[in-house]
Amino acid sequence: MKDYVFATKQRQREMFIPLRHPPGHVQADFGEALAVIGGVERKIHFLVMDLPHSDACFLKAYPAETTEAFCDAHVSAFAFFGGVPVSILYYNTRIAVARIMGDGKRKRTRVFSELVSHYLFEDRFGRPGKGNDKGKVERMVGWHRDREQYVPHSGIWMI
């Protein structure tokens, strides 16, 4: 009985996994916000890339979440960071993921395969519906969405 109680208590103990962010690993996510462009309020989409190790952050806004915007944001982010990261952790966007297979592996879209093949970074994906897999970039998306601010080099005020 004593062993059973001990084993049961062990299973119920709260567990913590220390967060470790080695250099060169990026988290990426698209977000939406309202913006004023030329005096007109409209919805914009922006890609945020965050380097959790250094807290470096990149954001670029677009009129829509398109394949072209996705690829352009990567090129711009790599130029901003001064290189290509070792890996990028994504949400399961249809721009990158054609299908999630039964074993959890992702079948990439053609364009995303070409992007990965050209820049030679490792693509990683969060679990579907689990935003906490990439919590750092999720917080950055929310922070940028919820604050009135000027997006550098874009001429856009996010409100």
UniProtKB/TrEMBL annotation:
InterPro entries: Integrase_cat-core, RNaseH-like_sf, RNaseH_sf
Integrase catalytic domain span: 19-140
Domain of life: Bacteria
One biological process term in Gene Ontology: DNA integration
Example of a GO MF term: nucleic acid binding
Transmembrane segments: none
Gene3D superfamilies (UniProt xref): Ribonuclease H-like superfamily/Ribonuclease H (3.30.420.10)
Protein name: Integrase core domain-containing protein
Organism: Shimia gijangensis
